[in-house]
Amino acid sequence: MKTNRIWSWLALAFGILYFVLPLLGLLEFSLRMRRGVYSLDAYWVVLSDPGFQATFTYSVAMAVATIIVGVVLVVPTAYWVRLRLPGLRPVIEFITLLPLVIPAIVIVFGYIRLYNTSSMLPLTGSAMGTNILLCLGYTTLALPYMYRAVDTGLGAIDIRTMTEAAESLGASRITIMSRIILPNVLVAVLSGAFLTFAIVIGEFTMAALLNRPAFGPFLQLLGANRAYEPAALSVIAFAITWVCMGLIQIITRLNKSLAATKR
Q1: Per the database record, which ranges form the ABC transmembrane type-1 domain (predicted)?
Q2: Which of 18, 36, 116, 134 is most buried (CB neighbours < 10 A)?
Q3: Burial state string for 128-157 with b = 16 or more CB within 10 A and e = fewer than 16
Q4: Could you tell me which residues come within 8 angstroms of residue 187 by beta carbon, excluding any fewer than 6 positions away?
Q5: What is the mean pLDDT of the chain?
Q6: Separation of first and last alpha carbons in the chain
């Protein structure tokens, strides 16, 4: 038993070193822009760059739009499948997992072929149309994470009893969704939203091939022309991802604490 615990701790330590050491090396390199001393010069250069500000703002806006579309699409679908079509759950789960096995480059090339300027729906012919197409592409990439988070949240509550009670009081479907189901799965929705935000901020393939001014292509462009600034930008991107993960943990723990207090 003691030997197993030692090996478990060794495996954990190896995993931590495997992930943490490269990040520490990246952080250390990003602080060496000023010769002979550590400084935040690379970070100030990146943060003051108009290109960074424009692309980061664009990606944040696309992330918010993707989250809204994902919530509107996933929450009613997952709710209705659990309530009325439980036999279709394996099929829906399989469909939502497809973006994990189909490369983003395949999806975006399909979009370009279907919605180019010579098609019946020429979305790529205008900036707004391309933005809509990119938002839908991001929604597809985030679908596995958003659906699993919402479906797990719905599984933790008795949606059938809640729905029947609301219907007996004359509530409409929209009222049931907005005032009963959504508040009870809000933590799950927020978890999916933070994961979606992290995915959209760092996504490169779709934004690059659709020629949109997103944060991912800017990171690649900066990395091809400079030395220390890309390292600083990578640290910032990692920090954003970890903040999203931390917020998920904080919200989950607060929800559990509130639930325990109510009991």
Answers
A1: 56-249
A2: 134
A3: eebbebbbbbbbbbbbbbbbbbbbebbeee
A4: 153, 251, 252, 255
A5: 87
A6: 38
**Tokens for 179?**
């005032």
> Domain coordinates of the chain in residue numbers?
1-31, 43-262
Task: Please name the residues in contact with 206: beta carbons below 8 A apart, sequence gap of 6 or more.
Answer: 104, 107, 108, 134, 137, 138, 141
Amino acid, res. 69? V
229, 42 contact by CB (below 8 A): yes
- pTM to 2 decimal places: 0.86
8 A C-beta contact, residue 182 and residue 189: yes
For residue 215, give Cα distances in angstroms to 16, 63, 161, 166.
28, 11, 45, 44
Helix axes 186-202, 127-155, angle to 10 degrees: 140
Read off the pLDDT band of 146 (50, 70, 90). very high
